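Cross-check.
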Amino acid sequence: MQHYRVVCFGWLIFDFFAFALGVYRSADAQVVLAMPEGRKSLELILVDDEGNLPDSNGRGSVPYRYRISKYEITTSQWVRFLNAKGKSQPDGGLWNNDMDKALSGDGPRCEIKRSGPSGAYNYQVAEDFADCPVSHVSFLDACRFCNWLHNGQADGDTETGAYTLNGYWGTDGRKIQRNPGAKFFIPTEDEWYKAAYYDPSKSGGAGYWKYPTRSDQKPSREIDSTNGANYYSGGYIDPARYFLPVGTFAKAIGPYGTLDQAGNVYEWTEDLKPPFLRTLRGGAFDSDDAGIHLPVANPVFSSISDVANIGIRVAASEGQQGFELGTIGEATEQLAPKDFPRRPWLDPLNGKPFFPLAWFSYASDQQDLDELAEQGANMVLFVNAPADVDTEQMAKENAVAMRNYLDYAQKKQIRVLVQFGGWYAAHMRGDMAEIARQQRWIESIADHPALFGYQLYDEPEYTAGFGLGVPDQKKLKDFVDSFQKLRESIRRWDANPNRMISVVFNLVPLSSWTEYLPTVDSFQVDRYPLDKDQAYFGHRGDWGPLMMAWSMHHGAESMHDYPHLRNPAPCLQGVGSEHIEGGTVGVWRNPLYDETRYMAYSSLTVGSWGVFHWIRQFGRPNNPEIAKNVGRLYREIRELLPALEESYQQPPFQVVQNHTGITRGFLTDSISDVTTLCLADNRHYYLIVCNNGGTFSDLQLRLQGLQLTSSVPRTAHVMNEGWSRNLSYSEQQKDWTLDVHTMCFGDVNIWVIDKD
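Predicted model, tokenized:
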């Protein structure tokens, strides 16, 4: 059954004189293919049996021969790389201070220390970490290491070769893929999977093992076992160091001869997890079955993430002369946009669609409700509501205060989402007395007509965090479970099925946000689109507006997997406060009306429902200019409310346009250059068109399914903008065509067509 082979590089000339004596060893030599005596070298294993069949999950078939490293890349090997190419690297580049416990605190650290000035940085590794796997290495770090190997080490280039980087340090990285001719590279999932699990000599015929130790039984943690690995089981094997030196489980050999493909550190692979995250394999010192046997769920870690339990294993072409097979691995073409289910929020009073025009108000009162009503808002999310129930007296007083607030909100025709951010804690610790007070509080207001629903939390992903290991996953699960228990309790105490239960998320989709989706009916997506150096929409980058649209699309797309969810709502921050100007105290910004208008409509066209603004009554005076412009936006949307409430769920016509591609080189894998939303009320058709791309002078819109009284050409005008275009019918195409016209990035056109 021993089918593995090791290739040694005795024909290379090595410099073995770089290591100095002492607690820490300096590593100045550049060669890592063979390290000095006592240090693990970069040995490469041949993986042949090309064209093998895939496993039952579709993984593992590779049509060519290749090599993969016997061990994970070690810390001492990375130190050699740093001393060759990191002389001037800033913190956060190929080295970051999380690698050094003295700088970043206790926890899993590979203990690489840096000394000296920039331009002459020197790196050293603690003796007992030298042969442990390197960690806090990002996917792009790994690409640069492979480029260095590809280019002969020494002063070899890190920016070209196996991967074309040319200084790229961004989070997206979809365009970073293996070049033809690559000699050293990060393995694809199939390359990694085949080396770990496929055994051509398996008893009963070639096939796949369940674990990378030639076993269908979960490994033990016994060092001398032929089926052992460093993973978490009620604790760590080494709670001080976490990592074990590579090859510690020397008898637990993979089918081709690899070691530690189960446990120690997770390992990057080249494949993409849409939209732009990379996949991981192999498990780690803090994992259980994830990665050792089951796929690793990567909810957040992007191409620049430096993580304590993630390292690398490299692969190579058979003779290091490079592949000439074209693109290797998973295709990275941009994804086509998907349609989204249309499930709007429902009014608890009548079950009909209700479109929020809302503010977050931190400390709302009657004056705040007066001002909101004057702007045209129909809802407020009351952040610091009188909802604390820590004592009986507090519960009684706050229930009365909440009811009084709701009474006044009803007079102003404003609905209320009530936030009680700390209520989950009683359910987490099983405090039945406090839970009983929560019940009495909700029962005291549950019949109020101004009450729209309850908000459980603001950005829970920051509180529970996220991570791949067992302790991190348990912390997250306990937190989510407490939300689920709170939700179930609320449903018992307030039987109205349309009472909204929501949260606010921020990092959609780069966080643990999907874990919370079973616990809510919908959610608001909170973005920070502006900073003080990028002040005006027409004269700045497009990070904020596109990030909002991108987030909203992924939020809406989640409804495919969670049929109970209703369309998420955007939280527009372009008119909110800016928290860093002046260093500490936030100030109200210029309202940036055009930008927030674009974010509102672009979000609608890619799957949102409602509009929220952030944040009022937050320790600074409200800005009358902001109030005026928010009111301007609300008045415009109020013209569309009948159409939104009547036709959002079932669009009354279809539109075909000539800019459905995704051409921007940004986080827009889901956002077409031009997005549209079709609506109708009893008198008009409406077509909302948003330009998310660039300047298009040839935009053509063809409308299918309009039910008009005749086929005579007519005029469509753009709401509130005083211009129009001809609309003509084609007997051949059976559709209506708007005259070709120009749109620029950020433009929003709301076309109005009279039905009569």
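The chain has three domains: 1-329, 357-647, 654-754. The longest strand covers residues 696-704. Passed to J.P. for a second look.
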